[in-house]
Design goal:
heterodimer; A: 177 residues; mainly alpha; Arc Repressor Mutant, subunit A; 2 domains; 3 strands; 63% helix; elongated; B: 253 residues; alpha/beta; Rossmann fold; 6-stranded mixed β-sheet; 4-stranded antiparallel β-sheet; 9 helices; globular
């Protein structure tokens, strides 16, 4: 998830100053990401350095400076939007490493670990359901779609836990012991 | 809350090794709870529901519903128990094709000697399908048929509503609508036991998820439902290490 392209995308609508970029960015993400204002300014300065945005007019009220998107910035944004996400699958969660270690250590606790993790995923599903409901209530269909993606991912995680639970575990698959 | 259902060491053995057997299951359900029972095919989850409904008898162990020990009831007593206390919604609706939607809804009431036409229409209205009252099932969509089946299950004000994969034969949208209806009934105090394989739909309403595997309860999870800040539920990640991401205060929890 890129702050750089988020900023470019917001500036495509109209010139904005740093605080407006911050507020709109956070509103767009429905409170799932709070951004530091310093980071917004750093990003704007880098984008200016790279010729993608530029400040317009003079410093206004309390020294605020408006930024606008340049044609090069629009081109970079369009290119980014058109590219599919084709990088490696991102696996951020600890459970992946825990599973590998638990298989090696084989202390017989794997089933309990899976059961605990399954509960955590069920709770997450419930929380995500709440969040999706709230987004729909607020008329934020775009955000509801994002939450829906997270729901389906968590459903897959749960299925994975079930599949692992029904396996017989040994250390035979853990090479390099 | 008070206890409504109690299974004590319930075992169900099927001749010929048919799947779905239960092996020493003990569990209680409180009045007003919305409980989901999940598990793979053949794990015994539907068997549990059928036993609680009095549609089938356990090989051993006892089942009480609302203080009534089902093993003490004969066939006629069990039929009365089902009629007066249980509403059952099935995956494939089971509406009678030669009766209209309203006539289908009224069957359980008529078995009790009531006409209840007013309440039948009221239920169809409440479930959002007043216009189908005089139509035959073949003319209705899957979602409409399932709502008629729910109205039929509710006509006698059951103590307990049992639903076995009620969204299993429906498209995503109709399934969500049916689950929303069940959620509404629960908010009005209806005790519901739901068998499903869809964890997304189950956790929408059920605050308790019982997992069944090979005839045994392997987990009984009670889920919390406090309002959480979006950043406590979803964390957007940045490739830029200097970006803050979610607020720090919540990270240190």
């Amino acid at each position: 998830m890129s702050l750089k392209y988020g900023v470019l995308g917001l500036l495509k609508g109209e010139p904005l100053h740093g605080y407006e970029v911050k507020n709109r960015f956070e509103a767009m993400l429905g409170g799932t990401w709070e951004v530091n204002i310093g980071q917004i300014y750093t990003t704007l300065q880098r984008l200016e350095r790279d010729g993608l945005v530029r400040p317009v007019g003079k410093r206004g009220d309390r020294g605020k400076l408006l930024y606008e998107l340049l044609p090069e910035g629009k081109k970079a944004l369009d290119q980014w939007l058109a590219e599919p996400d084709s990088g490696p699958q991102q696996l951020h969660e600890d459970i992946y490493v825990k599973l590998l270690l638990a298989t090696r250590i084989a202390n017989g606790d794997l089933q309990q670990m899976l059961a605990r993790q399954k509960r955590a995923f069920l709770q997450r599903l419930r929380d995500l359901n709440r969040l999706e409901e709230r987004a729909r209530r607020d008329g934020r269909i775009d955000l509801a779609r994002l939450v829906r993606g997270a729901l389906l991912h968590t459903e897959a995680d749960l299925k994975w836990m079930d599949e692992l639970s029904s396996e017989h575990f040994g250390t035979e698959g853990a090479a390099g012991e | 809350m008070s206890e409504l259902v109690r299974l004590t060491d319930v075992t169900k053995v099927y001749q010929g090794g048919i799947t779905g057997a239960l092996n020493g299951v003990s569990v209680t359900v409180e009045k007003g709870e919305f409980t989901a029972i999940m598990g793979p095919s053949g794990s015994g989850k539907s068997t549990m529901l059928n036993l609680v409904a009095g549609l089938d008898r356990p090989s051993s162990g006892t089942i009480t519903v609302g203080g009534t020990d089902l093993s003490k009831l004969g066939e006629a007593g069990l039929a009365r128990f089902r009629r007066d206390h249980i509403g059952f919604v099935f995956q494939f609706f089971y509406l009678l094709p030669n009766l209209t939607a309203l006539e289908n809804v009224l069957i359980p009431a008529q078995l009790k000697g009531n006409t209840a036409t007013g309440r039948g229409r009221e239920l169809l209205e409440q479930l959002g399908i007043p216009e189908v009252a005089d139509k035959y099932p073949a003319r209705l969509s899957g979602g409409q048929q399932q709502r008629v089946a729910i109205a039929r299950a509710l006509i006698n004000n059951p103590t307990l509503l049992l639903a076995d994969e009620p969204t299993g034969a429906l498209d995503t949208h109709s399934g969500e609508q049916v689950m929303e209806l069940l959620g509404g009934l629960h908010r009005n105090g209806q005790t519901i036991l739901l068998v499903t394989h869809d964890a997304k739909l189950a956790t929408r309403n059920a605050a308790r998820v019982i997992s069944v595997m090979d005839g045994k309860i392997v987990d009984d999870a009670r889920l919390e439902s406090p309002e959480k800040a979006p950043s406590e539920v979803i964390r957007m990640r940045s490739e830029d290490p200097t970006a803050l991401g979610p607020r720090k205060a919540q990270e240190t929890k």
